[in-house]
Amino acid sequence: MVVNFNAPDPDYPLPPLKEVPDDDADKPKEAYKLTTTLSGFPAIIFGAATLSRIYNEADHISGVTPLRAARLALRYGINAFDTAPFYGDSEIILGNALQALEPEFPRDSYTLITKVGRYPTEFDYTPEGIESSIARSLRRLHTTYLDVVYLHDVEFVADEKLPRRGGNHVTALGEEREQYGLNESQEGETYTDKDHKVLSAVKKLFELRDDRGVIKRVGISGFPLPTLLRIAILIQKRLGKPVDLLMSYCHLTLQNSTLAQFKSEFGPRAGVKQVITASPIAMGLLRPSPLLAHPAPLEIRVAAKRAVQLSEEWDASGTGLPDLALQYTFARAREIGIPAAVGLSTLEEVHASAKAWHEVDAEGLSTKEDWVTRVKSVQDLFRDVQMLDYSWATP
Fold first, then answer.
1. Which DSSP letter does residue 151 get?
2. Strand, coil or helix: what is 57?
3. Per residue in 23-54, pLDDT tens?
4. pLDDT tens across 170-191, in order?
5. What is the DSSP letter of 290?
6. Cα–Cα distances in Å, from 214 out to 210, 218, 328?
7. DSSP letter string, 67-118
């Protein structure tokens, strides 16, 4: 199916701002306001995939809760938003909310991040598709420019060049460099026309950035870290300039923190200026009720269920493991100097994220013995089944 970038968008009308509740729940706790910035980004990025029917009911996204969540985030200093056409109506919901909030938060007070190339029904990495996608995102987000645009999920289009799809891929930085296409002698080498499709799409994004100013920064996103590193190197070698940013998800979590090892390679080898992590809860794996179709192997899902049961000894409310997961990602991200994108869609989630960051950044939570013990007890569950730092095969 060909993407129709000119199809009419669904309508999600909002009431006048004066009719939107603005009570105590909509106010940030002053002590939790973010003050830390990392290369121009807040420590927490508002992940807006949740502003869609992928993660929430239609009544939720069509009401005023997304607007209130975005407003509260901005009041906390969480002033970067990550969305994508692939996330259903997320761009529309987010764009309408930010447009309504313009009197309090003008366009230059926040960073807009979106993606191109992946859509609900297909991938389209053609230059024409890229340009049409950007035009539609600008319209949906009610803006004349985009601060960051990622080429979305490059592993699905690029040559995979992996000796195995699942496993601990840190060996790509050592004894298995050649099998992953990461030897210095292999830098800049393409393997099939798939790599050329990625290069063509990034070249178009560079044009939109450098010649037309529609985009401020260009990045790539995806899951497998060796593929992201290889493609980032390839872009710099073949196109003569690096991508500005790179984002991977589920790789700085209680179950898998291998992004920490790869992070030191992206700058020196590929010229990447900023790395971003996403999905501290590992696509819902570390929640009491994970997705039934989660791509993790059975051993990981069983260990995660045991971790939930263990966490109930700390907190009977069921939030113990998700809270620990969020704190852990924030602690590791702070340690290596990168922002973390967190899926947010309610006031409660925004408050909880700001609180977790404060606990890590200002209160030194990650140095406290009880917290360290809890982290180790959860990680031991994955370690015992040889699944700590295991990257599952891309769905």
1. E
2. coil
3. 999 999 999 999 877 778 999 999 999 999 88
4. 999 999 999 999 999 999 898 8
5. -
6. 9, 11, 36
7. HHHHHHHHHHT--EEE--TTSTTHHHHHHHHHHHTTTTS-GGGSEEEEEESB
